[in-house]
Amino acid sequence: MKQLARLSRLAAAMTAMGFASIVFADARYKMTTPLPPQILTPSTVETRIGKLEFTDGVPTPSTAQLVYDNLDFQRGVEAFLNGIPGASLVAMREGIRSFGADNGTIALAETLTDSRTLLLTANTESVYFFGWLDLKNGPVVVEGPPNVLGVIDDFWFRYVADFGNAGPDRGKGGKFLVVPPDYKGELPTSGYFIVKSRTYGNVVVGRGFLKDGSPAPTAANIKAHLRVYPYSQRNNPPQTHFVNSSGAPINTIHSNDFSFYEEINQIVQEEPAGAYGPDMTGIFRSIGIEKGKPFAPDARMKKILTESVAVGNATARAIDFATRDPAARIYPDRHWNTPFIGGSYQWLANGARNFDARTMFFYAATVDTPAMAVAMPGVGSQYASANLDASGRPFDGGKDYVLHVPANVPAKDFWSIVVYDTQTRSMLQTDQQFPSVSSQKDLKANADGSYDVYFGPKAPAGKDSNWIQTIPGKSWFTIFRLYGPLQPWFDKTWKLEDIGEASGK
């Protein structure tokens, strides 16, 4: 009784000092002390996944199963959201390989990329080229052509190197030696820009631009100078094989169903253990994707992962098409978004990664390089995407819209607008080969130098050159691109207007 009285007085004193109510263990025992209630688990807890039940803090068997199912589900969603960059490259590699072998085949859009190719938010103005590098047998040489914007990214779409205008060759062309992660051999001391990848698989991608409205000179330049071959064959390089990819009906987009995890498993099995870092490798391992082991989920796990990928896909689509991040807005009062939130190609700020920003980018786009995120007036390109109209509603392919582009667009080279399908995030497939307008084409300006661009199922009378076709019953979104962006774009003294419903034709 004395001990109980003493504990009661202690509880009263602690409560008077501002502590929460005190819970006591059985006062019959000598070592009994006050127990703060926040460290205890009640016998039942109502949660969003159901009622959780405990026996003196020990989960019942049914509760343990419930929380393990939820844990596997959560990790499946995280594996989807963070695995998108790699799965995207698995799909892209399949598309590239459809043209020929690794380390020497280049898919070249000699007459530009059109809407028949399923490629995440490609543009209609660049002469694209793609190739796949496999470093398992040693380093690979990439002889970059002059006057292009080229990038090498690893199998998780992490930046490896720029070549061309934004690279160390400064647009003059040069030899790049791409070295695998575990390479122990000797390397040259001169003649190459040497870069090391964290993965064996790498994508090489680049773009050149029209000359006098034609892609032919740029395509010829790329074919004359771009070479890809194993370093071991440097003394007698094999011929690089170019295939025209323009109009090719291929798919380069990752899956949004259970097979997404099978795409991730390809990378995990092919690459060095832990190539994506221990945390994400651990996430993949927790759902059964582990280096050296078959990915063979049982019926329970497959059911959970099938639901995980559905929720993960819905989450990625919400992040892309209904972002809640105010930092995504280029202008706080308008609906144009930046693909590089925070101005970082790694989506880093204050030592933290913005995971949603990375998901926003890779669910709708490809290729990562600092050159795309850094503000460089007069150099490279800048992007603004619109998923919502002036009223904040998704675009309806059956309605007519108009975008008023103010005069003096701050683009040293040119600007363009391309329309995309919200399902595929690729160019909208309509009667138009190129669902776009560009200042390089026959775009008609208003008397004051501004432009009106029209979107809808039918062109307004006399506005065909300024019109992009849409499809009733199908949504769409658009990207505004500036090539050679100038300072008024960066300081926002020139602003894009929102796309609004057209009042009449």
Alpha-carbon Rg, integer:
28 Å
Overall tally of structural domains: 3
Q: Unreliable runs, pLDDT <50, ≥5 residues? A: 14-20
The CATH superfamily of the largest domain is identified as Domain of unknown function DUF1214, C-terminal domain
Report, as a whole number of angstroms, the end-to-end distance.
91 Å
Shape: globular
- Give the helix tally: 9
Count of β-strands? 27
Average pLDDT metric: 94
Q: Trace the largest sheet across and list its strands.
A: 10-9-13-7-6-15
Q: Can you tell me the CATH class of the largest domain?
A: Mainly Beta
The profile of the biggest β sheet is:
6 strands, mixed
Structure classification: alpha+beta
β-strand amount:
25-35%
Helix content: 10-25%
Give a quick summary of the entry.
The protein has helices at 2-16, 61-97, 216-225, 259-270, 278-286, 299-321, 355-364, 370-373, 487-490, and strands spanning 23-24, 34-35, 44-47, 50-55, 58-59, 105-108, 126-134, 140-144, 149-154, 159-164, 174-179, 193-196, 201-209, 227-230, 241-244, 336-337, 348-349, 352-353, 381-386, 395-396, 401-405, 411-421, 436-438, 451-456, 467-469, 475-485, 500-501. With 505 residues, it is an alpha+beta fold.
